[in-house]
UniProtKB/TrEMBL annotation:
Recorded GO MF terms: nucleic acid binding; site-specific DNA-methyltransferase (adenine-specific) activity
Protein's name according to its UniProt entry: site-specific DNA-methyltransferase (adenine-specific)
Sorted UniProt keywords: Methyltransferase, S-adenosyl-L-methionine, Transferase
Top EC class for this record: transferase
Catalytic activity of the protein: a 2'-deoxyadenosine in DNA + S-adenosyl-L-methionine = an N(6)-methyl-2'-deoxyadenosine in DNA + S-adenosyl-L-homocysteine + H(+)
PANTHER family: DNA METHYLTRANSFERASE A, DNA METHYLTRANSFERASE YEEA-RELATED
Gene field: paeR7IM
Length: 1108
């Protein structure tokens, strides 16, 4: 059973490093020893030796002498290879670690685990409970290493802890000894000079990042050409086949490209002769001129039926089934030339070295984007010339987005994994029970743990019988994606199922039971995987994804028309047919066995407005129905409906239903008819669906069966800033908490850990509401209706005052939301013309002249306006020169007050004593209570507000007036009030000094060094050291720095930035003093303070204090 690994690095990323490597001559001792190792390991004698006999010399000869690592005895203050590395897992130690080790401390880059030559690496061996790869991954985790190497001496593999174990770089000893190019690649990737350099970072990290960057660029380039070819082909078909409807021609365009793409893939993977497409394009009849298209029609027939004289095997499977609609097309030669260009890319096996290698991940993105583009074209065709008439594209209406591999991998593992574990244990127990009279039944305590050399015939037969039954039982696992799209979840499910088939075969081989007992690729497609999608183009592309995944030389493509089908998953064709009966009729064999074992997917994000026609059916057949529920709600219920008892469901979808009113019935359904297992709330996370403005969450659940119901579910809330793409599974395991299932009912779900609700309740019970405490309510900033006219800079303000002194009376300092900082706002030199209702504009002639230049934009819209678009402001009882909205509380702006932002990304409340006006992106409290200001800026209050305020895009908070009024403010003792007021007063002054100092540094850099656009780091230089400060200045200049320049910068750093750093430290100490005092005013215990920090949201205003 062949297994294809996926490389970690793109060949383009590795190539420059490989080309820079100069190998030592073949006659040198390390190269000679490499040859000897290859020779030894190719013999049967090596298999009889244990790792303890071989590994010490192997590490010395390969890692020290060949790759250049050093040990502690090699001299020097730093060495780079450490044996028996530091951390214990299952009573074992990592065999070695690569990094930098010495008196200054240890930095581990790579964990190394070595095994004997017979170890298969991918599965447990010789009585161990874990495979070598699993063991090494745990070592890497414990050692905090991002990389790990696993070797059985015959091969060396390099893994990254954030990738699944199908991705690795592999080096075989025999090849390294015989092939200089492969040896050069080995030394380039794992050489000590680059993995553990004297200065700089581990180059493996850079290769990893660069490979991802190259992959993204290649995806964009490839799709640009692929899309252009589709557009050109479609346009040509429309031109040359005017009698055919454009919608039909669009579908045929995609079908032809699917055929061409499979052949391009096949010729690079050895399924078809090389240059098959190029030959079809170049072939010409010497006597009869005919279209090149006829060659391609013949090629399609050859692939469908097989043509041995051309070396073409039969593949069929439905993709090349004769289709008169395709055969009767007129296709110009120019289009066929595009087919050849598409085939010029490299679709070969990973590690082919091509700069244009298109891997399966790239194809996944291409396929999903193809669906989107096709539907946009279909929308335009349906609307004719007016594309807007058809509304958003079908894909947008269907809400489909490509699900990245790290999400599909997690969801499939968390659903398929438990199903298989349950089945494995049931089968194991049954086999052990049947063998209970045998003294060897103990061999079935754990069928994965045995030493084949130590087994007698009875134990061996028991294990063989178990693994044969397990392999056969895998065929009965049924997995479905009810909104399969281009097949991302199905491909992931294929990979994970394949790993289980491979495991079974590996154990049978180890037990001497032979190999190739089954054909897993075909079995998985015909027995394990199922899918449905409303979009026919998506279904065809999903099938193509599966064919590309599984095609093998000389074997027919698997027919998928009964497994992956076009259809409406949630609405049956007839109104009186239930969804389950609809699915039963579609997949009768599955439901004869009770239903699906696993339901997975990314249900479409479709707003309820687009499913109005389906609502009568949905109301009749779904318990979760709500008149304003979006489509995904019904996929949640459908998933439970089609599962068998004990089956698992895993979806990624928006988190809105967990709290929204329209989700109440669904929440009740899941409380009664499902056992929640995990809920992962990912917040407003753009890393998952970059093109969608959604708040995704992952949910897995079990359909109740006869077993005991779990008491709790695993819950993990991951704010966007803390999300780890390459380590999601471990992050969820480490940061998740157990929450009683009793908390998940019809009411909005609370995903917080135990104690958080109690702490929230305590804050509210101890404190008074802000309105009660301060006797004030929040007031809104000024909305002008046309800032272009009413907001001016300082030079314009001075000009207006010079033109007429009366202007000064209506020109007020103006504060924007972005100007509000913690403690004290930094005025940006802007002014507002405060022309409130009732102003006599004629008393301010200069201001009137200024506003008249904007008269058209300032005019209020008449109530009887019947035109299409009004160029001015909204209707209202205001004059053209007045502010749009009345500001009855305008006098309060002139008094000391506390200002804050309408959209809060950070906890920023500030004291304003300058009487500034705020814009409509600010609120203010008409009080100058410094104690209140301290509470509002405290960590405790940000912790509370994260849970009490509305969350906006990008995880910002919305401190709406009524919510702020209810904010709990603790009643202080006299000493507590005095302590907070004193600290706040000092912080306001320190903030002023820091703002002035930062501005002075930036101004000096602009004047002396020409830094016109200082970086974010230079705008707050206190966070830099002297070298970093100099480097940032260099980046911002068009020319380099002289020695004198560097000295001036270092002198200025000491003179101006060092004092800013001192102010920052002083401010930090004051912040912590306020935090401690506010915590005390709330009466928080040490355990409650710890809980607050354990559950702290992103962007807490100060760092967690260091304790004990």
């Amino acid at each position: 059973m062949a297994v294809e690994s996926k490389p970690l690095f793109r060949p383009e990323a590795i190539r420059p490093v490989v080309e820079s490597v100069v190998l030592m001559p073949a006659s040198t001792q390390p190269r000679v020893k490499l040859g000897k190792w290859a020779a030894l390991l190719s013999t049967a004698a090596a298999d009889k030796k244990k790792e303890t006999e071989l590994l010490p010399d192997y590490l010395r000869d390969v890692f020290v002498e060949l790759l250049g690592y050093t040990g502690p005895a090699d001299g020097g203050p730093v060495y780079t290879l450490k044996r028996e590395a530091l951390v214990q897992v299952d009573g074992k130690y990592a065999d070695a670690a690569l990094g930098r080790f010495g008196a200054a401390g240890d930095t581990i880059m790579v964990a190394v685990e070595g095994k004997g030559p017979r170890d298969p690496l991918d599965r447990p061996f010789a009585g161990r409970k874990r495979s070598a790869v699993e063991q090494a991954a745990l070592y890497a985790l414990q050692l905090r290493a991002d990389w790990y190497v696993v070797t059985n001496l015959k091969e060396i593999r390099l893994y990254h802890k954030g990738h699944d174990t199908a991705h690795y770089e592999r080096f075989e000893m025999g090849t390294l000894a015989a092939d200089e190019a492969e040896l050069r690649r080995f030394v380039a990737i794992l050489g000590a000079a680059r993995v553990a350099p004297d200065t700089g970072v581990n180059h493996l990290d850079m290769l990893f990042v660069e490979s991802k960057k190259i992959g993204r660029a290649l995806t964009a380039d490839y799709y640009r050409e692929y899309r252009q070819l589709r557009e050109q082909t479609f346009a040509a078909l429309c031109q040359h086949n005017p009698q055919r409807p454009p919608r039909e021609l669009l579908a045929l365009t995609q079908k032809i490209l699917d055929r061409v793409l499979f052949i391009a893939f096949g010729e690079d993977r050895g399924l078809l002769p090389r240059d098959t497409i190029a030959d079809a394009y170049k072939h010409r009849d010497r006597y009869t001129r005919r279209p090149i298209w006829e060659n391609f029609r013949g090629l399609f027939d050859a692939v469908n039926e097989g043509k041995p004289d051309l070396g073409i095997d039969q593949y069929n499977g439905g993709l090349y089934k004769p289709d008169p609609a395709v055969d009767l097309l007129t296709v110009p030669d120019a289009v066929c030339e595009g087919f050849k260009r598409l085939a010029d890319y490299e679709y070969g096996k990973p590690g082919s070295g091509s700069a244009t290698y298109i891997d399966v991940d790239i194809l996944g993105h291409i396929f999903e984007q193809s669906i989107t583009d096709l539907e946009e074209t279909q929308t335009q065709l349906a609307a004719g010339a007016d594309a807007d008439a058809a509304g958003p594209s079908k894909r947008k209406r269907e809400g489909a987005f490509y699900t990245p591999e790290f999400i599909t991998g997690y969801i499939v593992a968390e659903t398929l994994g438990p199903v298989l574990r349950d089945r494995f244990e049931t089968l194991r127990a049954a086999h052990q029970l049947a063998a209970k009279r045998s003294k060897k039944a103990k061999a079935l305590d754990d069928p994965r743990v045995f030493d084949a050399d130590m087994l007698d015939t009875t134990a061996r037969n028991l294990l063989v019988g178990f693994w044969r039954d397990w392999a056969n039982g895998l065929e009965t696992v049924r997995i479905v994606d009810p909104s399969c799209g281009s097949g991302a979840f199905l491909i992931e499910a294929f990979d994970q199922m394949f790993a289980h088939y491979r495991e079974a075969e590996g154990y049978l081989q180890a037990l001497g039971s032979g190999s190739n007992l089954f054909e897993p690729q075909r079995t998985i497609l015909t027995h394990n995987l199922f899918g449905m999608d409303l979009n026919g183009a998506a279904v065809e592309i999903a099938r193509l994804s599966c064919w590309i995944k599984t095609a093998a030389r000389g074997k027919l493509l698997t027919a998928l028309d009964r497994n992956i089908i076009e259809g409406n998953s949630v609405v049956a064709p007839a109104a009186d047919v239930s969804p389950r009966d609809h699915w039963r009729a579609t997949f009768p064999d599955v439901f004869a066995a009770g239903g699906f074992d696993v339901v997975i997917g990314n249900p479409p994000y479709v707003r309820q407005e687009w499913i109005k026609g389906d609502k009568p059916y949905l109301q009749r057949h779904y318990r979760a129905y709500d008149g304003v529920a979006d489509l995904y709600v019904y996929f949640y219920e459908l998933g439970l409906n089609v599962l068998r008892p004990g089956g698992r469901l895993g979806y990624i979808v928006t988190n809105k239903w967990m709290k929204a009113g329209y989700g109440e019935a669904l929440r009740q359904l899941y409380a009664e008819a499902a056992w929640l297992e995990t809920v992962v709330d990912l917040g407003h996370n753009k890393q998952i669906f970059p093109d969608a403005d959604v708040f995704p969450c992952i949910l897995t659940a079990r359909k109740p069966d006869a077993g005991p119901a779990p008491e709790s579910a695993r819950v993990c809330v991951i704010p966007r800033e803390q999300f780890r793409v390459d380590d999601l599974s471990r992050q969820i395991r480490a940061e998740g908490v157990s929450v009683p299932r009793s908390r998940f009912g019809a009411d909005p779900w609370n995903l917080e850990p135990r104690g958080v609700a109690d702490l929230m309740a305590k804050l509210k019970a101890v404190g008074l509401t802000l309105r009660e405490f301060a006797g004030v309510s929040p007031l809104y900033g000024v909305k002008t209706g046309c800032n272009e006219a009413f907001v001016v800079d300082t030079p314009t303000r001075d000009r207006l005052v010079n033109e007429h002194p009366s202007s000064a009376a209506v020109l007020k300092k103006y504060l924007r939301g972005q100007d509000v900082d913690r403690w004290r706002s930094e005025w940006a030199g802007q002014w507002m013309i405060f022309a409130r209702r009732g102003i006599d504009i004629n008393q301010f002639p200069a201001v009137k002249r200024h506003l008249e230049a904007y008269r058209i934009q300032l005019e209020p819209k008449p109530k009887d306006w019947a035109g299409k678009e009004w160029p001015g402001r909204k209707p209202g009882a205001y004059k053209w020169y007045e502010l749009q909205d009345p500001v009855e509380y305008w006098q309060a702006f002139g008094n000391p007050k506390l200002v804050y932002q309408v959209i809060q990304y950070h906890p920023s409340y500030a004291l304003d004593v300058a009487g500034m006006l705020g814009n409509d992106k600010t609120f203010f409290l008409p009080t100058a209570d410094l104690y209140l200001l301290g509470v509002l800026n405290s960590p405790a209050m940000w912790w509370h507000n994260w849970r009490a305020l509305v969350h906006l895009k990008d995880e910002a908070l919305s401190p709406m007036g009524y919510l702020v009024e209810q904010t709990p403010i603790p009643r202080p003792t006299a000493d507590q009030r005095a302590a907070v007021e004193a600290a706040v007063g000092q912080l306001v002054e320190r903030t002023r000094e820091r703002q002035t100092g930062r501005a002075a540094v930036v101004d000096w850099l602009r004047a002396e060094f020409g830094v016109e656009k200082p970086s974010q780091k230079l705008q707050d230089p206190a966070g830099l050291d002297s070298d970093e400060f100099t480097a940032e200045v260099k980046k911002g200049r068009k020319k380099g720095l002289t020695v004198a320049d560097v000295k001036r910068l270092r002198d200025e750093f000491e003179a101006s930035v060092r004092p800013l750093q001192r102010l920052t430290r002083e401010a930090d100490a004051l912040e912590h003093r306020i935090s401690d005092t506010v915590n005390a005013a709330f009466g928080l215990t040490p355990a409650e303070v710890k809980l607050m920090w354990d559950t702290a949201p992103p962007r807490m205003p100060v760092q967690r204090p260091i304790t004990g």
